[in-house]
Amino acid sequence: MKNTPPAKYRIDPVKLFAAILYRDEEPLVKARELLVKRFGPEDYVSGPVLFDHTSFYETEMGASLYRIFISYQRLVMPGELVAAKLKAAAIETELESPPGRRQVNIDPGTLDYQKVVLASFKYQGQKIYLDQGVWADLTLYYRKGGWAVFEWTFPDFKAGIYDRTLLEIRRIYKTQRMEMSAP
Predict the structure, then answer these.
(1) Residue 20 domain-assigned?
(2) I need a surface site. Which of 42, 56, 57, 151 has the fewest CB within 10 A?
(3) Tens digits of per-residue pLDDT, 5-28?
(4) Residue 2 within a domain
(5) Which of 137, 149, 22, 134 is nearest to 87 (CA)?
(6) CA dist., res. 148 & res. 146, Å (int)
């Protein structure tokens, strides 16, 4: 039996996006094609940003990694973050070459008026367990016209290098929400 919130609690849809780490273009192109099949059409794609705030992925993926952000046209309910993370992990596995070496790292997330949430398979004290091994990591919050960080925010997000991108995705989200409520 599926639990639903009482009618007096309105759950608003959120904007789904993917933050993708990659080194080579070919796996990125394949990942984008597979993501569109699962999440629907893209409505924003950022330019690549050099990912040099940690060497965590270097052993597995190599050096000189880049990150891009892609958002998707269809708004989703917040609980769909679990399915998005599981689908992203399946794509990462499908594109491994050789097996066990990811060519892309796909971090799905959601964004609304007030916050950016990333999905994670890794536990940390600030993360909230959702389901099926997926945790919600509250990464940024919106304050006074910009993104603010938490003590635990990842260094690359903390540095503000994605702020413009995330503000643009938020702008698209706001437009979509206004269109939804127009008569």
Answers:
(1) yes
(2) 151
(3) 666 778 999 999 999 999 999 999
(4) no
(5) 134
(6) 7
- Contact predicate 69/19, CB 8 Å: yes
As a whole number, the mean pLDDT across the chain is 93
Structural domain contains residue 88: yes
Please indicate, yes or no, whether the overall pTM of this predicted structure exceeds 0.85: yes
Query: What is the rounded distance in angstroms from the CA atom of residue 161 to the CA atom of residue 49?
Result: 8
For residues 96 and 152, give the distance between their C-alpha atoms in angstroms, rounded to a whole number: 29
Is the pLDDT at 54 greater than 90, yes or no?
no
Torsion of CA 135, 49, 169, 105, to 10 degrees: -30
SS3 169: helix
Among 50, 37, 27, 14, residue whose Cα is nearest residue 180: 14
The tokens for 132 are: 């099926």
7 in a structural domain? no
171: Cβ–Cβ under 8 A, 6 or more apart, which residues? none
Give CA–CA dist 138/116, Å, rounded.
6
Strand partners, 69: 19
Query: Is 1 a residue whose pLDDT tops 60?
Result: no
What are the tokens at 34? Answer: 């597979």
CB atoms within 10 A of CB 125: 5
Identify the DSSP state of 47: P
Q: Which amino acid is at 64?
A: S
Q: How many domains does the chain have?
A: 1
